[in-house]
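S1.2 Input.
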Amino acid sequence: MNEGKRFKVKRRMSTLFSLIRRDKYLLLMFSPIFLYYLIFMYLPMPGVLLAFRNFLPGQGMFSGEWVGLRWFEQFVNSIYFWRLLRNTFLLAFLPLLFGFSIPILFAVCIVEIKNRTFKRFAQTVTYLPHFISTVVVAGMIINFLSPTDGIVNTLIASLGMDKVNFMMEAGWFRTIFTSSDIWQSFGFSSIIYIAAIMGIDPEMYDSGKIDGVNKFQELWHLTLPSIKPTIVILLLLSLGGIMSVGFEKVYLLYNGATYETADVLSTYVYRMGIEGQNYGFATAVGLFNSIITFVLVFAANSMTRRLTKMSLW
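S1.3 Output.
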């Protein structure tokens, strides 16, 4: 290395160390997130090779016969393929379809409330469900819908109607899952929209009042266009996690009687991999799930960029 290159390397290293010294506290705050993604997201990635091998426990990750796409073909040709795909899409899209607009409307209502005490009370009550453990939420749902002493069936019986065994009827699972998901998340999701609305220039609203716009016109022509970038970004992020479908809640709420409408790809991977010890097949199904998610996010990003000129990349 000549003297010129050595000087450039030395200057770059000096710049790097000075940046680290300057941002040491920010880097310290970022380090847990970095370690989480490194350990749980990136280091396990070589394990995807199990999807193409006949993995035998105890003989190492890279041992076993190379089987190519056998596990993928077996999954696509199985009798559960279309049921799993349909349930995964429906349980992912229904909360998005019915619940995506609720945080936006709730944020608009919260901003309009002038009584600060009531505003804080409403925000606290709606934020709390987000911090309740999924296990506790599932227990609450099962207790509320109990056919013997659940509050819902008690109310139904008081109206003279027959009690319903909600948790054992497949037809009710999607309704229960969607409504509980909206209840648990809409308050917390509204925080970002409230921040976006609070950042809108107040002079726009003053100009609108001078022009005589009513509240609906103010919402439609001023508020929603101003927070459109936030809405698009959050929609894309929601699509990114659409195929994960809240594994914990589905696993805690479903049972053999509701597999027809409740069984999704993530729970099937768990049953095949952990309970059935068919690791190669489970890895192939999980990889198939990830590929579908990638295609969805890529398609949604391209579509929003074409329609709204905004995108994640």
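S1.4 Remarks. The chain has a mean pLDDT of 85.
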